[in-house]
Amino acid sequence: MKRLLRQGWVRAGVPLSSIESLADHSWSVAALTYYFCILENNLREYKTHKIDIQKAVLIALFHDLHESEFFDIDKSARFISPETLDEFQNHLEEGAIQNIISKVQIPVKDSLESLLRDHGSEEYHIARVADLFELLHQANEYWKKRWIDMNQYEQFSSHALKQLKPYENQFSFLEKYLLEFKSQ
Asked: Where are the domains of the chain?
C-alpha cells in the first residue's frame, strides 16, 4: 500500500511525486475516524449507544487493504456503466479479501475478516464518512496548489458530498463539517 498511488489523482494530473499512497490515505482516514468518533460520542453523552472507537479506527486503517491485491481502481472510469463498475469492483474486492485472509493465521483471520466484511455497523459508516472527508480535503489541497482545475475539484467534491448526504441524519457532528465544503 505504501507504493500504490491513488489513481484518481494520477488521472487528474497531480504530479506523481505529490500524490498520496494508499497507505497515506488509510492513515489519514484512520486519524479522521478517531477524531470523528470522539466528536460524535461526545454529542451522544446521554445516549446509551456510543461508537466503538477502536473498531472504527481499525476498519478505517484496513478499509482499502483489498486494493493492495488488485490496485486502486479510479472511481471515475467511464469505459463501463457505474453499475457494471460497482459489480466488477465488488467481485475484485471479494477475491482480494479471500486472498488476504487465506494468508493469515487463524486468530488474526477471524478478526481481520470481521473488519473487512463489516459494512453495516456505525463504526464502518463513520470510517466511510472519514474516507469521504479525506477525499474532500485532498481535493481542496490539490486545487489550492493548482494541481487540479476547478472542474476537477467540483467533480471530486460533488461525488464526496453526494456520498455523504445519507449520513447527515446519522451523525450529529457532520453538519458543522459539511458547511465548510458546501460553501465553497
From this structure: 7-182
